[in-house]
Every structure is written in C-alpha cells, then in structure tokens.
Design brief:
- This protein has helices at about 25-40, 70-80, 95-110, 135-155, 205-215, 225-240, 265-275, 280-290, 320-330, 335-340, 340-345, 355-370, 385-400, 410-415, and strands at about 10-15, 45-50, 85-90, 115-120, 175, 180, 195-200, 215-220, 250-260, 350-355, 375-380.
- The chain is α/β, with parallel strands linked by helices.
- The strands form 2 sheets. The protein has an 8-stranded parallel barrel with strand order 1-2-3-4-7-8-9-11, surrounded by 8 helices. The chain has a two-stranded antiparallel ribbon with strand order 5-6.
- Helix 1 (about 25-40) packs across helix 2, helix 3 crosses helix 4 and helix 5 packs across helix 6 (about 225-240).
- The longest helix is centred in the middle third of the chain and has 21 residues, at about 135-155.
- The chain is globular.
Length: about 425
C-alpha cells in the first residue's frame, strides 16, 4: 500500500486501567507502568494520564482513580525517553503547588514532563466551591492559573544553580490577579531543558482561544474527519491571532481503537465494550448532551435540525453539544443511528474498528487530509487489541514512513518538534 506522506505523526498513549472488577491498586500501577514501557519500546512520543476529581457513581467499579502525577513519577523511574503528560485541573489547584509538582516531575524525568490543563465541570464541592463557573469564567481562571505557573517556573531560572550570586536571578513574581495572589519565587529551579510542555483539551470557543494562546498540543474531541479538519484549521487561525506560528500547535484527536485479526472480531469487541449502555442510558445521554428527548420516537424516525432545542439552553458540556448538533444538522440521522454515535457512547472520540491494516489506511487519510497532526491512542476492547496496536499498527505506520524508527531526542519538547 502506497501513501502520500507529509511529515511525521505525533503519537501518545492514554493510560486507562479499566476492567469489570476493581483490581488491587498495585495491579493498576504495575499495569500502567507496563503499558508505558511498551509505548517507549514502540518509540511513542508520550504517555498521557487522564484524571477526574469527581467519584462518578457509574464508574466506581471500572476505573482506578489514582493520582496521575504520582503514577507518572513512578513511570519516570522505569523509562528513559518517553514523554509523561499528567492531567491537573486549573480550576481548583493552587498555582504554586501545581508549578512545584510539575517542575519536580520534570526533574525526575529529566525533561519529559507535560501538563494537560483542564477546567473541571464537576468536583468543585470537594474544594469548597459552592457554585459552578461558566465556561468563559473557567477558562479565564485557567488562563490566569497557567500564567502564574509559568511566572513561577521562570522565577527560579536554571542558571541560578551555577551562578555566583543566585539571589540576583531568583526573584518574586508578586502576582495580583482576579483569582490568585502569589508572591513567589518558586522553591525549585527550572530544569535545564526548559518548561514542561503544555497540553489542553478544550474545543469550545473559549477553550480554543485559550489553547491557541498557550498550548503546544491539543487533545481534541473529533468524532469525524470534517469536524477534525474544521477544528485544526480554526486553531491554526487562532494561533496566528495570538502571534504564534500554526506549526507551534499539534492537534491530536483521541483515537479510540478496537483492533482484531478481522473486522468482525474488532466489531464484536466494540459491541461488548458498550453492552452495559442500556437504551435508557443512551436516551438520557442525548437528552443531557443537547436537551432533546427522543424516547417516544420510532427508531427509524429521522432527527432533523428543526427538532433541535435552542442553542442558548444550558448544557453539561458545550463542546459535545455542538458536535452532536452539527452531526444532526448535516446528516438527519435516524434515532437508531443517533443512539450509536460516539458523542452519545464514546465521549465524542474518533472511533476506529477493524484490522491494523484497515485502521492504518484511515489514519493516513485523516493525516493527509489535514485533520490532525497525530493522535492520542485510547485502547478499546480486549488486551489483544492493545497488543495488535503495538505489534502491528505502529510498525505499519513506521514502514509507511509516517512515524519514527528510533528516538532522536530525550525531552518531550524535542519529541514534538
């Protein structure tokens, strides 16, 4: 198979430890260390650890909610080259603690740390917050938090460690903002490789503007290629508006994959992964996402744009709402088709089901059509699916010339260049 290739993909792996019954925490840690080591053997750019500050009742038995920064600190000691991207909320964490944690991970990993900046929808009650901020206010707070963190990193430059008079270089930041008042300086020096790399996952208008101003990589919710192309182009335009080069930003959709020796085997994995989602759960998901109740409609009824509620009504997640509304407007799907959409069952990720060779072709198609700069691989299905990813799909990408054979650098920032 011959492909037209423009550059090299940036590939990360999401470390998700899921199973039917909660394993002992030490098993969850060892499993994720093992995944990270395999990812490094495959020469991936980074591993990525998602997080939630809210104990969702429906997920208590299926996901080990270990602190991502602590897990990645353990992984740093067991690896040498792969980047380590942790998720920390800018909504609740004090910037000083955040800056210190990340710079510590940067030192322990010798320049491989990354920060996935998130704004939290849930969990505020665990931090004394009595009301939820609007999307615009959450990103305004995140922007200030990130600014303070970067000021703190720069308050103790690496050169101060070897300077004759380090006190001349280490300075307070004396930040007085709308959300934070921080004196500084930080108590730990900047690593010689520079600052940890910033990632961001927001795709709303406020999220895009924030991401384009600070992030080097965007973890994108893009269930289809056209959505991905629009997002990538808009982010590149936003980068220019923020006096940044479009090449400064890598758009990385989450690729939720189910790989098998045959398409039928992969399809069965996908069905089994979602068999716990009842019809009522899917109906409720549509209603929560866009405010539309389709329970009383026959499954073969087409859902059209005129049936959509007002865009101004409150929704839980504006990004997912916009994606699902767009899909309905463009496709007029049946209720049955709508119930199977990624935005309803898969958190709006790009989903691929098939053999490694089949999925390879679709990855190349997205890449050459300008829909992405790489992806964050999210394992789906059985252990076999993950094995096929490492043993067949990544080597196929390498053979196609779109992914590295060996590391040529030691830091995450250099991997992304």
């Amino acid at each position: 198979m011959t492909f037209s290739l423009k550059n090299q993909l940036c590939i990360g792996l999401s470390l998700n430890h899921r199973q039917k019954k909660q394993a002992a925490m030490d098993q969850a840690v060892s499993a994720q260390i093992g995944q990270a080591q395999r990812a490094e053997q495959a020469k991936l750019d980074f591993v990525f650890k998602p997080d939630s500050l809210y104990a969702h009742p429906a997920r208590l038995s299926s996901q080990a909610g270990l602190d991502p920064t602590l897990v990645l600190t353990l992984i740093a000691e067991q690896t040498d080259n792969i980047g380590l991207v942790t998720t920390i909320s800018a909504s609740f964490q004090p910037p000083y603690i955040l800056a210190r944690q990340l710079q510590t991970l940067h030192w322990i990993s010798n320049g491989r740390a990354g920060w996935n900046i998130v704004t939290s929808l849930d969990g505020g009650e665990n931090f004394g917050e009595t009301s939820k901020l609007s999307s615009e206010c959450r990103y305004e707070k995140a922007r200030e938090c990130t600014e303070v963190v970067q000021k703190l990193w720069r308050s103790f430059p690496a050169e101060a460690l070897t300077a004759r008079n380090p006190q001349d270089l280490v300075k307070p930041i004396t930040h007085q903002g709308n959300y934070f008042q921080v004196k500084g300086p930080l108590s730990i020096a900047m690593h010689a490789s520079g600052e940890p790399v910033l990632f961001q996952a927001g795709a709303s208008e406020a999220g895009r503007q924030f991401a384009a101003s600070v992030a080097s990589a965007i973890f994108a919710a893009t269930p289809d290629k056209e959505t991905a192309k629009e997002l990538r182009q808009d982010l590149r335009n936003c980068a220019k508006a923020n006096q940044r080069s479009p090449s400064d930003i890598r758009v990385l959709p989450g690729l939720y994959f189910f790989l098998g020796d045959s398409y039928e085997e992969a399809q069965q994995m996908h069905r089994e992964a979602h068999q716990h989602l009842t019809l009522e759960h899917r109906y409720a998901s549509i209603e929560t996402t866009i405010g539309l109740d389709v329970r009383e409609l026959p499954l073969d009824t087409q859902v059209t744009e005129v049936m959509l509620p007002s865009e101004k009504q409150p929704v839980r997640n504006r990004t997912h709402a916009n994606l699902l509304r767009r899909f309905i407007s463009d496709n007029q799907p049946t209720v049955k088709r709508l119930l199977d959409r990624p935005e309803v069952i898969d958190s709006a990720h790009w989903v691929e089901v098939g053999t490694p060779q089949q999925v390879l072709g679709r990855i190349i198609e997205w890449y050459n059509d300008g829909a992405m700069d790489g992806f964050i691989a999210i394992p789906g299905g059985t252990e076999k699916s993950l094995n096929l990813f490492f043993d067949q799909l990544v080597p196929l990408l390498t053979e196609a010339g779109v992914f590295r054979r060996e590391y040529t650098s030691k830091t995450l920032r250099d991997h992304l260049k």
